[in-house]
Amino acid sequence: MTDKIYEYKDDQDWFVGKWSDFSRIYQLGGAGDFSKIEQEVASLIPEQQGLDIVIMRYSSDFRLLAFIVDVINETLGRQLDIKQHKGATILSEGQQLRLVHLPEQGLPLADFFSESSQVGFGDKILIATRNEGKTKEFRQMFEKLGLTVENLNDHPDLPEVEETGTTFEENARLKAETIAKLTGQMVLADDSGLKVDALGGLPGVWSARFAGPDADDDKNNAKLLHELAMVFDEKDRSAQFHTTLVVAAPGRQSLVVEADWPGYIGFEAKGDNGFGYDPLFLVGETGRSAAQLIAEEKNAQSHRGLAVAKLMEVFPAWQKEQS
């Protein structure tokens, strides 16, 4: 068996493992009992082999099992798939159910075998957007948590939710909580916009329609430059891109995270990437506009990227508390 050392590390979890003669899982400085998972691992691998795993940080059984599945698939060429379902963790391989890992307190049968489970195992999250690019970004993150990701294109009969709120959070809540109530699913919605200090925070929640009902990106940018025409010093043209993310589910308290991306409004449009106000938004002290950044640069520092990073830190704990 290979001598390779395997590692998974993020802000919530940190696991280090290697193949051994028997399976052992222990937590440094912790009192956690992982004997149940040790037995479950033994059922997934050949006899006379085991995984020796050291836990440096721990947030959930699911994340630990996902690490173990990745190691087994990579080393043994298996195709194990892991999902969350009604608080349980489901491991399957092809059309075969291999393992059901339950929380210590168990699960009510009525919850596990609810009507929604008849159309396929696995918890889902619905992204309140029809933008496939945005959906792809969220899919990459939530699939790591064992969730299937859908968007509004999968639900063509859903009505459009009118954004009548006066704050980013109100609008994001309206979308997430309304769609969650209509579908019975977990829903993520966002509301984003540009806040310009010299304009008292405008255009804010009206960013997409700043220039009026028939506004588009060019008209909005032209209006913004017009409103700042008498502001000559760049330091007085400070601004922030803002994002609020809300995750809602029926009968649960919604999860809210926010993030800002500070910068300045330039005197002319620069760059061909991005959309909206990106050509006018100068990033920090760099002098480059958001439209001059490649996608990887933008995602690493933008308001949406920062908000998503915050969401990934708190979502597992929220999901566990609400289930």
Description:
- This protein is an alpha+beta fold and 323 residues long.
- It is built from eight helices and 13 strands.
- The protein has helices spanning 35-42, 61-76, 109-112, 132-142, 168-183, 217-227, 295-301, 303-322, and strands spanning 6-9, 14-20, 24-27, 50-57, 80-85, 88-93, 96-101, 124-127, 148-151, 186-196, 238-248, 255-265, 281-283.
- α7 (295-301) crosses α8 (303-322).
- Its cofactor is Mg(2+).
Which descriptors would you attach to this protein?
single chain; 2 domains; Maf protein; elongated; six-stranded mixed β-sheet; 8 helices; alpha+beta; four-stranded mixed β-sheet; metal-binding; 323 residues
What's the gist of this structure?
This protein has helices spanning 35-42, 61-76, 109-112, 132-142, 168-183, 217-227, 295-301, 303-322, and strands at residues 6-9, 14-20, 24-27, 50-57, 80-85, 88-93, 96-101, 124-127, 148-151, 186-196, 238-248, 255-265, 281-283. It is of the alpha+beta class.
